[in-house]
Specification:
Oligomer: single chain
Strand order of the largest sheet: 8-9-12-11-10
Number of strands: 12
Structural class: alpha+beta
Shape: elongated
Number of domains: 4
Largest sheet: 5 strands, antiparallel
Strand content: 5-15%
Helix content: 55-70%
């Protein structure tokens, strides 16, 4: 019995099915950015593929060719392969068992279907699909000439089927997009892409951190990033020379709000260069032109703060509370540090640090969520943003050194106070070490 030709036909049908499956999955998973980059470099093979990816009609035809090819190959494998395999099995089954011709034929058919199904699923579906998903770009480029040739062969059938499909879509009220097709991602999808790229080593650690923070940037409010009122260093409008000199010596800032009676009445801003000019002339802020500052409510998004700074051409904004008083200040450096992380001055202690005993020290301005991130737990409060605010709320009075409060899975001990707020405290996790690491 000559089995070479039937085996070659079956293998050819499996290979054909695999090619169409690989083409379909590679086309869907092909990285658009990489395709665009190679096309811009003049790669002709990629240029042809890019034209298909950009045109919805070409996409429909490409996928229709893949579906038609898979259907034809699968039907051929089922009809021809099952019959041939059953013929090979029928005679041995009659000889081995005490089976009649009808019973042997039925059993051979069942076994043949099982064998062909297994070969079809593994060799014709799973293997090519896995290869196409792992190497989508190279696979899509490789099979594109084959798919273009198949489009010529199946063109009448493709046009007919697509036409019928579009009629059904219109009847269902679904309109086909006619322009170029672009892939749009939500912020959450972009976060997932960045996280997966980090885990896969495609993006460096620092770059990945910046990308993640940048995606979270738009979710922040002015109240979450501002320097609280108690930490504002400002210049009184009627300040004298000695007072200004003392302020400059004790403060690392380059921009200072200028106020009349108190910080609720900020009238403008002075840069350190302006202050030095005043000192050189022996004058004070009163009667000197001040730089304008925008006023933004603490509930506004940081995008609004940034837009206000651009509009006023300044790098400082006054943040207002619900009563119209000054809640804090936001500088361009504060916004920048929300993306790249804290940048401390040479003489400035970082807001979060660990001592030689391994204890976590945080300043009162650190956000509650940041403390949770250090312990790999979710820690937040709907009414307050900072550690100082959390301690004040839990104590229900001004803190003193030595106070200890417990919130969810952490304990906070006050080490230093400033005014009526917390300047520094030690935070201890109350979770078992393994549980904290798992973020449970």
């Amino acid at each position: 019995m000559n089995v070479v030709v039937p085996v070659l036909i079956i293998a050819g049908l499996v290979l054909l099915n695999g090619l169409f499956v690989a083409a379909e999955f590679a086309f869907v998973g092909a990285p658009r950015a990489s395709i665009e980059r190679r096309a811009a470099a003049g790669d002709r093979r990629v240029l042809r593929l890019r034209r298909i990816l950009r045109d919805p009609r070409s996409q429909d035809r490409y996928l229709a060719v893949a579906q038609i090819g898979i259907t034809i190959a699968s039907l051929g494998l089922g009809m021809y392969g099952e019959e041939v395999a059953a013929g090979w099995l029928e005679v041995p089954l009659e000889r081995i068992g005490a089976l009649g011709t009808v019973a042997a034929h039925a059993l051979a058919s069942v076994v043949a279907v099982a064998i062909m199904t297994y070969i079809h699923i593994v060799a014709g579906e799973m293997v090519p699909k896995s290869v196409a998903l792992q190497r989508a770009e190279s696979t899509a480029v490789l099979v594109n000439p084959f798919m273009r040739a198949m489009l010529v062969v199946f063109y009448p059938l493709v046009v007919t089927l697509n036409g019928i499909g579009n009629l059904i879509l219109r009847a269902l009220g679904v309109e086909r997009q006619r322009g170029s097709v672009e892939q749009y991602h939500t912020a959450e999808e972009l976060r997932l892409i960045v996280r997966e790229s980090l885990e896969g080593g495609k993006i460096g650690g620092e770059a990945g951190h910046v990308l993640q923070e940048l995606l979270d940037f738009g979710d922040l409010t002015a109240g979450e990033v501002m320097v609280p009122r108690v930490h504002i260093v400002g210049i009184p409008l009627d300040a004298g020379r000695d007072e200004i000199v003392e302020l400059l010596v004790s403060s690392p800032h380059t921009r200072y709000p200028v106020y009349r009676e108190d910080l609720d009445d900020i009238v403008g801003m002075m840069h350190v260069k302006d202050v030095l000019g005043l000192l050189a002339r022996g004058g004070g802020p009163d009667g000197t032109p001040l730089r304008p500052v925008p006023y933004v409510p603490e509930t506004a998004d940081v995008d609004v703060v940034l837009a206000a700074m651009r509009r006023e051409r300044t790098q400082l904004a006054v943040i207002l509370d619900e009563h119209g008083g000054t809640a804090g200040l936001v500088s361009i450096e504060d916004l920048f540090e929300e993306v790249v992380g804290e940048i401390e001055e040479e003489t400035e202690r970082p807001p979060v640090w660990t001592d030689h005993e391994g204890r976590l020290h945080v300043s009162g301005t650190v956000r509650v969520e940041e403390v949770g991130e250090h312990f790999d737990i979710q820690l937040e409060h709907e009414d307050v943003d900072t550690v100082s605010g959390l301690v004040l709320m839990l104590l229900d009075r001004p803190p003193v050194v030595g106070d200890v409060v417990v919130y969810e899975h952490v304990a906070l001990q006050v080490l230093a106070v400033e005014g009526h707020g917390v300047a520094e405290c030690v935070v201890t996790s109350l979770l078992p070490e393994s549980e904290g690491e798992d973020g449970e």
